[in-house]
Each structure stands twice: as C-alpha cells, then as structure tokens.
Design brief:
Number of helices: 15
Helix content: 25-40%
CATH superfamily of the largest domain: Glycogen Phosphorylase B
Structural class: alpha/beta
CATH class of the largest domain: Alpha Beta
Strand content: 15-25%
Number of strands: 14
Strand order of the largest sheet: 2-1-5-6-7-8
CATH topology of the largest domain: Rossmann fold
C-alpha cells in the first residue's frame, strides 16, 4: 500500500509530530506500507508573528495536485491543520476522495494562550476540518472522549510508540550537575508551560533540553536552571537517560511522545493529571501525576527505573504503525484509492 501523508510540521523542525511521522514511516515500511510525505519543502513560506521563528508554507493549488498525482497513493492522510493540511483536504473534497486525519496538537488552547482568541472558536474550525475526513485518529482515550463531547465524529485510535533501541538506560551522558536531576525536553515556548516547572523549589538540578522563542527570556528569569540546548539522536537519548526524573509540565499536548522516550531510558515521569500523562502514566508505578507539580517530582524520585523500561518495551512503533494502517481501511470499502487516476480524467483547467 502506498500512503501519502500531508504535514505542515517537518524537518528541520524538531518536535513530537515530526518524530512520530518519521518513526511511523520506518515501521510501516516493515509492514509492507510505503509512506511518502507532502511537506512544506519547495513552497514559499512566511513567518507567524505570534510564533517567533516559525515558518509556515504557502501552498499552490496546482502544485498540491501535481504532487499528489506524482505520488499516486492508495490512501491519503492529513496529519496537521496548517496550510498544507487545508490544501490537501480541499483537493480531496474537490475530487471526492476519502481521506483520514489525525488530531495531534491542541491548537485552540495554543492560540488562546498566544492571542486571547477563545478556544471555542478554534474548536469550531477544527471540528469542520476533521469531520470531513473518514476517520480522525487520536492517541488517547481521554482525548477521544473530549473531542467527542465537542462534536468531533468518526474518531479512531492511533497510539504512539518509542524506539527502544535508541532510547535506553544503559548509556547515560556524564552530566556534571548536582543530583537529583529533574529534566524536561521540548520546544521552549510559552504553550509548554515551562514556568510551572522552572519556578519549583527542588533539590539538585533543573535541566532543559531544547530550543525555542522563549529560551532567552527564561534563561534571564531562571539563572540557576541549566539550559543544555537542542539535542538529537543518540545525544538526546543519552542526556535523557542521565536524568533522575523527567518532568512534563505541558497542559495542552495530546500525548507527549517524550514521555515514552523518557520511560524507555528508565526515567520516571512527573506531570500534571491532564490528557496525555493521564493516559500514559495513569496509576502505574512509572511516574507521578499531581496538580502540585513539585509533589509529583519528589514522588517520582522513588519510582523503579526497571519498571519504566519494562513499560516502554510494550509500546513499539510497529504496534503503532499497525493501528495507523488499520485506520486506512476506512478509505477502501471496495477498491484501492488511486488519486492519480482520478486526476488524469480531469481537464488541465481543474488542476
């Protein structure tokens, strides 16, 4: 099966969506599914004033059609709700082609934090976006329940996985920092709620891995915090393995792949009891959830690193890919989807 995934988030961005899609493609290939990506590469881009440093593609309708035609996919999946996602969605609707979507980021809350626009407005827009698809894939049961209550239809599960060969506990970086080390990883931006973590009075050291528009400000405000910069691959994995507790302060992430990565490194998680942590950690002895984040951090210190690793080993990318591929069956009630064949029957004026 050939599958085309449309995404606004792509390299060189470093975030959970990009890592998820890249890992999905590798795992799906082993299951006989070839995944190609329709990304912002090659399109003009513009900056977003409320998201410093972020560039957004400006897709051309004819080029979108050409790329889908060239890919000749059996299935189309729209992974993000940015300009690329909207353009591919519009293409599918014009050509009466079914497609799936995934809800990976709580954009209404992000926009509300940045601009003050009520989240209800954002949910109305996203409800329209996703309900046009055959299936909207979500990572957790709590998110599914939340979206269903907001009027989202045709919801299906697509859980996340972790590369347990890359993220492992036996090769930690040698960090010359006082113990215990409380660490977080991710984009250093206001929507990640880092203040809730960095302002805590904790023993040992607080460390942040990542880059983003709020980094310079937070470095000024929290001079005792260790900002270690952006890390990738084995370097990232070894730094995570060096932590004593992984702290996930976000209130708006729908899952948080970094939680699984930390657990694979044998590092227990401390977080708020919100969507994502509630589904990954729940009441398992691999982390602590509390509205008092400091209390969660201190309780997590006593968790078994072996139990964290064992839990992560049960969450492979192969299992995640099987779920994703299973959801694509909604696009094929009788025969494989071939957008290229449909486009070929249309006149150039409709390209």
């Amino acid at each position: 099966m050939r599958t085309l995934i449309a995404t606004d988030a792509w390299h060189p961005q470093v975030n959970g969506v990009v890592r998820t899609l890249t890992s999905l493609a590798r795992a799906a290939a082993n299951l006989g599914t070839q995944i190609e990506f329709l990304t912002p590469d090659g399109f003009p881009s513009f900056g977003v004033p409320t998201y410093p440093g972020l560039r957004v593609a400006w897709p051309n309708r004819r080029e979108i059609a050409r790329r889908i035609d060239a890919a000749s996919p059996d299935a189309i999946h729209v992974a993000t709700e940015g300009p690329i996602g909207w353009a591919v969605r519009a293409y599918c609707l014009r050509n009466k082609l079914p497609f799936t979507t995934s809800y990976t980021t709580r954009f209404p809350e992000y926009v509300a934090v940045r601009t003050g626009i009520p989240a209800a407005v954002g949910y109305a827009v996203l409800r329209q976006f996703h309900n046009a698809g055959a299936v909207t894939m979500v990572a957790t049961n709590s998110l599914k329940q939340d979206l269903a209550a907001r009027g989202f239809r045709k919801l299906g599960f697509w859980t996340r996985g972790v590369d347990t060969e890359l993220f492992r506990p036996d090769e930690p970086a040698l960090l010359d920092l006082p113990r215990p080390i409380f660490m977080t990883v991710g984009r250093v931006a206001v929507e990640k709620n880092l203040d809730a973590f960095l302002s805590l009075d904790l023993p040992g050291s607080i460390a942040v891995i990542g880059d983003g528009p709020q980094k310079a400000e937070l470095e000024r405000r929290y001079p005792k915090v260790h900002f270690l910069g952006e890390k990738k691959g084995k370097d990232l994995a070894s730094h995570v393995a060096a932590a004593d507790v992984f702290v996930f302060p976000s209130l708006t992430d729908t899952f948080g792949v970094v939680q699984l990565e930390a657990l694979a490194c044998g590092v227990p998680v401390a977080a708020f009891p919100v969507t994502g942590p509630k589904d990954v950690i729940a009441d398992r002895p691999i982390g602590a959830l509390d509205n008092d984040l400091r209390s969660a951090c201190l309780r997590a210190l006593g968790m078994s690193r072996e139990a964290c690793r064992a839990f992560a080993l049960e969450h492979s990318w192969e299992s995640s890919a099987r779920q994703f591929i299973g959801n694509l069956a909604a696009l094929q009630p009788s025969r494989p989807l071939r957008p290229a064949q449909v486009v070929a029957k249309r006149s150039p004026a409709h390209g």
